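Changelog-adjacent note: as of this version, every example in the card shows the full chain rather than a window. The one below runs 174 residues end to end.
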Amino acid sequence: MSNHSVAITERLTLRHFHILDAEPIYQVFGDPEVMRFGDGVQTKEWVDNWLRTCLERYHQTWGFGPFAVVEKHSQDVIGYCGLFYFPDINGQPEVEIGYRLARFAWGQGYATEAARAVRDVAFHTLGIKRLIAIIDPSNTASIRVAEKIGMHYEADVMLEGYTHPDHVYVVTRQ
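Full-length structure tokens:
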């Protein structure tokens, strides 16, 4: 697969980030509606640091990380979907599947398509046996994506600095 792509679906290409992705990724992290269930709107500087971490550290350290989600038809980067390592979720290390798309790309099934592809890469290419998703209980769209890729609610988790627990959804390799 060209251009470091890790997965190709019907409508999407998932590939490694490059530094030129800062602008479209800022459309994700800079949108209060997109970040409503996260840590809120982030600065351009924060986005640059996040991208640098993706490029320089994440994949090298863990063998996985976030991928750019590219809409094939337009070649636009519409968000990210990928794997994140958490050393301690309710007492054990976990790999989380995380996804965020720009608001203009919502409601078209892209998140489910991307998440399904990343789940399959995790299970079949990377040999990971269990994935979680940490989701705000009121984020119904994100919960729907998790359920569509075979995840089910397992427990609550209280993350540092949060005022209420998030839900932990799980899927295990069959």
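Structural remarks: The two ends are 26 Å apart (CA to CA).
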